[in-house]
């Protein structure tokens, strides 16, 4: 079984903003990411290569809050986070607070593959990127007019920090022909966030987790709650120690444990059998799935 799932954020889109044209654009972006990742799987590539390929598409699409199109912090600048994890051996790589790296998911992969570390932050991560030949971009490369307007609304007090319609963190999980699982997550964070804020996306076990004995998970939503609940690892633990399948475990964490502490958002998760779960407790979640059984679907709002 070959399988991949992607997400592009969880939250709410007012009907006035969710035009048919915008829905089509969201679905097209999700499908492009699915097809990019699935093409890697079909060619015999690894699940790790597949999730990176899928997330790259979403980072380069200005509709989503990752890479180009990322939200702005309160100081008017972009700070990006990303992580990857390989289910074969629990290797992982992560970066946080990067400001000049066009595709943070690539840098997270390099941290995993080319350093003895799991996470690099800020200037150290930027220097590592330069040493390995990643060409820097200006910070305003990531800016779009929509994100400028969102920040202005926050600064005027018209909405809370992080309160834009969709918290558009992106991510992917995949299962390859060798039975290996992998996950990747990338984000621009929350609109109007404090300088230096770190959410769940770069934190292994919170926003990203993958292990061949159970599942691969990528999360999206209000990151502080996902950190507190160790969401991605909790799903894996429920599968390992309580014998739940991936759908049962993901539902337990997203619709019960997160709700209990006030957290909103969702996850995409894939089990070692290729089963895919995409639960969310918010009004909507941008999501999609594709597998070798002919499945190809995208979704935006309620289940």
Considering the chains and any ligands shown, give keywords for the structure.
single chain, 303 residues, alpha+beta, Glutamine Phosphoribosylpyrophosphate, subunit 1, domain 1, 9-stranded mixed β-sheet, 4-stranded antiparallel β-sheet, 8 helices, 13 strands, 24% strand
Structural commentary:
This protein has 303 residues and is an alpha+beta fold. The protein has one domain: 4-Layer Sandwich (Glutamine Phosphoribosylpyrophosphate, subunit 1, domain 1). 34% of the residues lie in helices and 24% in strands. The chain contains eight helices and 13 strands. The strands form two sheets. Strands 1, 2, 3, 4, 5, 6, 7, 12 and 13 form a nine-stranded mixed beta sheet that branches. A four-stranded antiparallel beta sheet has the order 8-9-10-11. The model has no long low-confidence stretch (mean pLDDT 94).
Gross morphology is globular
Under the CATH scheme, which class?
Alpha Beta
How far apart the termini lie comes to 24 Å
Are there runs of 5+ residues with pLDDT below 50, and where?
none
Tally of contiguous helical segments: 8
């Amino acid at each position: 079984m070959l399988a991949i799932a992607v997400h592009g954020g969880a939250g709410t889109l007012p009907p006035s903003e969710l035009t048919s044209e915008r829905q089509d654009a969201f679905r097209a972006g999700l499908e492009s990411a699915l097809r990019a990742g699935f093409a890697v799987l079909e060619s015999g590539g690894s699940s790790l290569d597949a999730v990176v390929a899928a997330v790259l598409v979403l980072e380069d699409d200005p509709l989503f809050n990752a890479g180009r199109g990322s939200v702005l912090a309160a100081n008017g600048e972009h700070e990006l986070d990303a992580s990857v994890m390989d289910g074969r051996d629990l290797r992982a790589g992560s970066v946080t607070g990067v400001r000049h790296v066009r595709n943070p998911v690539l840098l997270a992969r390099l941290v995993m593959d080319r350093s003895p570390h799991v996470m690099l932050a800020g200037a150290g991560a930027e220097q590592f990127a330069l040493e390995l030949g990643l060409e820097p971009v200006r910070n305003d490369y990531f800016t779009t007019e929509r994100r400028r307007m969102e920040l202005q609304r926050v600064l005027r007090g018209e909405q809370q920090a992080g309160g834009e319609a969709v918290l558009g963190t992106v991510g992917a999980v995949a299962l390859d022909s060798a039975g290996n699982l992998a996950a990747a997550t990338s984000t621009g964070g929350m609109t109007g966030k404090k300088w230096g804020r770190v959410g769940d996306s770069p934190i292994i076990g919170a926003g990203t987790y993958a292990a061949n004995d159970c599942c691969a998970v990528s999360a999206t939503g209000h990151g502080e709650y996902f950190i507190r609940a160790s969401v991605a690892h909790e799903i894996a633990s429920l599968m390992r120690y309580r014998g739940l399948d991936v759908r049962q475990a993901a539902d337990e964490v997203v619709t019960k444990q997160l709700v209990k502490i006030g957290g909103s958002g969702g996850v995409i998760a894939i089990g070692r059998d290729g089963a895919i779960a995409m639960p969310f407790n918010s009004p909507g979640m941008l999501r999609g799935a594709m597998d070798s059984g002919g499945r190809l679907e995208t979704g935006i709002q309620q289940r």
